[in-house]
Amino acid sequence: MNRIEDRFKDAAGTAMPASRLSADAVYAAGWRRQRRRVATFAAAGIAAALVVALVGVDLLGSAGDNRVARDPRPDATGEEPPPGWLTDGGLVTAVATDADHLYAVKTVCRVKEQCSYRLVGSDDGGATWTVRQEPFGDALNYEVEVPAAGVLHHMVTTPNPDYVDADPESPKMLSQRRISTDGGRTWVDVREVTAPVDAVPAGGWIECRQVRDDPCASLIAFDPANARAAPLRKQPDLRMFTIRQLPQSAGFWLIGSDPATNRFLVATTADRGRTWTTHTPPDDLFAPVSVDGVTGYAIVSDSYPVRPTGPNPTVSPTESKKRVYRTVNGGRTWERVDPDRTLPDGALGVAESYVAGDGTHVVLMSTDRYLRNYAAPFERYTSSDDGRTYRKGGAVTGLGDKLTRDHRTTGLVTTTVPGVYVARDDEAVYRSTDGLRWTRHVVP
């Protein structure tokens, strides 16, 4: 475990289940939870402080680096280049609302000056791009997300005019959601109401509400047609950790634990949150993936330290053993697959996996434990026989060997919208309609 992960666990303040879950997986999942935390209507000051605590100098360099551009040329010491959001023209975010409509946020920077950001969009699958908003966002909020098909989401943080210094419950900053349904040309504020709703509205989504140190105390249902958010009446009976990213047509999957035993639980709903079914998986399936909500995969990694090599090592390296599980009934039961352990153990860790349109399980692996925020090399392993065997490379074509993580979620491939897969490097968006055949589009 490295000092970044230590910092995460210190900051998270959430009881972790006694398990064999790898530290890398916990850290990555924590970042995914952090996206949900910032997305709530809680004080943004808490979320911003947690981001700084989580990231520290290892990922961002310093808090000031998130505001001031750095020289993109590495110096004579071989210093790694700064992340895209600190270099002029850098690609910060890439998302899609459907197969034809892509969006990206790019930086506008001069060295040692504060960066600004530009939202651009493409209505023809990445062939041409136009500016949708400039400047876009600010030094804290410069990302755009797609929580549901056809919807762009952006968070705005402003000082609380009613802040009371003597009141510990009074936030210094307030966060406001904004959504756009016309490709980022106009935005409306999302209004939060207190009356609960029975189900997530058509075209909507769910998010976690954070209460103090609980990252997912309850679920909120969002209605983009009316720009409204409301508590979901029926809540799953478990301690919730995170919401898994699935296409909207696949339903909703939640990961959590039994408060009494700390055993991992998976909660699913097929009726948009009216009812929930809770399942006890055979292992700590923290990051299951699915494209249809029926067939899915999960990989569990057991990490263990190994002897450091090389001159003056500062962090003890780790390796891991992997176990692959598959479900064919929406997460109710899971079976162990890959009996010959063809998904390699050792220094390669699982960075991401997803299910392609034809059911192929694609696993992206890396030796990078620091979750760096610029294009880094990844190796692909694929299984087209229901997880029985994995082979390097496989049927995936057109996807670069270097991909950039989303610095909020550590994600590499986005599959929120049915029928479109999105990834990126520091200059271009990768788009696919089946998860196997990819096209690279440079964002001008």
UniProtKB/TrEMBL annotation:
Residues 65-87 are annotated as: Disordered. InterPro entries: Sialidase_sf, WD40/YVTN_repeat-like_dom_sf. Keywords: Membrane, Transmembrane, Transmembrane helix. Signal peptide: none annotated. The chain crosses the membrane at residues 38-57. Residues 67-76 have a biased composition (Basic and acidic residues). The keyword Transmembrane applies. This is Uncharacterized protein.
